[in-house]
């Protein structure tokens, strides 16, 4: 019986990774019944542990949906947030857009966040964001519903030149890794990069703050993010004033800037990563989460970071900060049309703006372009929302995007305010006088 329960638990993990959420929900119900039968028949000593496993899975599934999208009969719609042929906004391609995302390292270490097995909800969301929707898999969960897609018209797919569709980028998932593990897997991804390939590092971790009163070395003296709470037994107790052994500092990434590097830092100490220099002249871009969340929204952090949710499902994040817990599927689709308009317009503005060359070099890749324009959506939304006051409650990026040409562009502001009106949440945002 215990073997059977373990099989169910492992199968649920596999289904999560494959985004088979409908099957996951069915398996959770079956596991619940199996645990109840196991407990009543054997009265085992490990009943408490199995109930904890079940509660962990249920909490993860509940947090994963973030916002409920409902059919007319009030049954939930299973959405997919993977990259599909209709998802990535179109661009006017130019010669600088030469990079493709090939290697990805996803790291999670948030103390107070929903997780199952060795997968936090932030890690799961980023994993799904960086996967292509299987085109030939009849089993992939889409519920035959258009609610999980954006009706973009990006042109032929596959490309006109007859090149085969790229496979998904290669990924490493590390939950609470030690510093040495982070370096090993970063080096592995770095080694495997082909010509014109880019490496993406995603960090969802608690901040590791500096106690240095007079920082001199910007790569280490400002702190970083904690990848693990483990202690290294070989070195014993850390000396007073010594640096945290399992903190990833900005300086630790310097060697990996020899090749194109795209970094996403979701942490309360994210901003220290804006100091990474380009010693080797290679493309580099860093997206950093807000350092602080408004007090009324801090309870949401347990169900995953707001910044990562914006990068994963912009409309779900928008609804969450407007206290919209669920939407009918037809209303969701209408709101998605506003998000579609925003991303297309943001993409056009970025290409035509005088932005740093690194941004354009990454912009040719479908995944990275989507992350950048969703970052723009996040920044504009939080700038207009009444609860988010001050620069520390908004994301930032390095190199920075042009303020006037992109982030403060009136066309983007108008789309966000129209979207707010669509979900009857206009009062959550600044009015025209306050904007002026």
TrEMBL record:
Residues 131-143, 229-245 have a biased composition (Basic and acidic residues). One of its GO terms (molecular function) is transcription corepressor activity. One of its GO terms (biological process) is DNA-templated transcription. Residues 131-168, 223-245 are annotated as: Disordered. InterPro entries: SCAI. This is Protein SCAI. The lineage of its organism: Eukaryota, Metazoa, Ecdysozoa, Arthropoda, Hexapoda.
């Amino acid at each position: 019986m215990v073997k059977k329960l373990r099989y169910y638990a492992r199968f649920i993990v596999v289904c999560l990774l494959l985004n088979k959420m409908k099957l996951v929900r069915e398996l959770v119900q079956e596991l619940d019944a199996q645990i109840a039968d196991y407990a009543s028949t054997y009265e085992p000593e490990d009943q408490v542990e199995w109930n904890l496993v079940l509660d962990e899975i249920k909490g993860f599934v509940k947090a994963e949906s973030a916002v409920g999208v409902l059919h007319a009969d009030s049954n939930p719609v299973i959405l997919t947030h993977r990259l599909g042929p209709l998802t990535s906004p179109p661009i006017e391609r130019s010669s600088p857009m030469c990079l493709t995302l090939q290697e990805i390292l996803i790291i999670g270490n948030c103390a107070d966040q929903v997780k199952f097995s060795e997968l936090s909800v932030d890690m799961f969301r980023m994993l799904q964001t960086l996967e292509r929707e299987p085109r030939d898999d009849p089993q992939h969960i889409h519920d035959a519903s258009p609610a999980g897609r954006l009706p973009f018209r990006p042109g032929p797919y596959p490309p006109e030149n007859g090149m085969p569709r790229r496979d998904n980028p290669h990924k490493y998932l590390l939950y609470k890794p030690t510093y040495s593990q982070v370096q090993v897997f970063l080096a592995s991804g770095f080694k495997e990069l082909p010509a014109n390939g880019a490496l993406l590092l995603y960090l969802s971790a608690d901040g590791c703050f500096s106690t240095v009163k007079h920082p001199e070395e910007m790569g280490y003296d400002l702190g970083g993010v904690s990848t693990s709470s483990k202690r290294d037994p070989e070195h014993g107790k850390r000396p007073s004033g010594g640096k945290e052994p399992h903190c990833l500092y900005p300086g630790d990434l310097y060697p990996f800037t020899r090749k194109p590097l795209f970094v996403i830092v979701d942490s309360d100490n994210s901003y220290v990563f804006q100091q990474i220099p380009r010693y080797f002249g290679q493309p580099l871009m860093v997206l950093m989460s807000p350092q602080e969340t408004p007090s009324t929204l801090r309870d949401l952090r347990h169900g995953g970071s707001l910044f990562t949710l914006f990068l994963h499902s912009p409309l779900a994040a928008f609804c969450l900060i407007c206290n919209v817990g669920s939407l009918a599927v037809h209303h969701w689709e209408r709101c998605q049309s506003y998000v579609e308009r925003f991303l297309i317009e943001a993409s056009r503005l970025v290409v035509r703006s005088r932005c740093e060359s690194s941004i354009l070099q990454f912009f040719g890749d479908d995944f990275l372009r989507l992350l950048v324009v969703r970052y723009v959506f996040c920044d504009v939304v939080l700038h207009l929302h009444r609860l988010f006051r001050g620069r520390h409650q908004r994301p930032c990026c390095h190199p920075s995007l042009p303020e006037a040409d992109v982030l403060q562009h009136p066309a983007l502001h108008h789309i966000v305010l129209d979207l707010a009106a669509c979900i009857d949440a206009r009062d959550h945002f600044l009015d025209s006088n306050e904007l002026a």
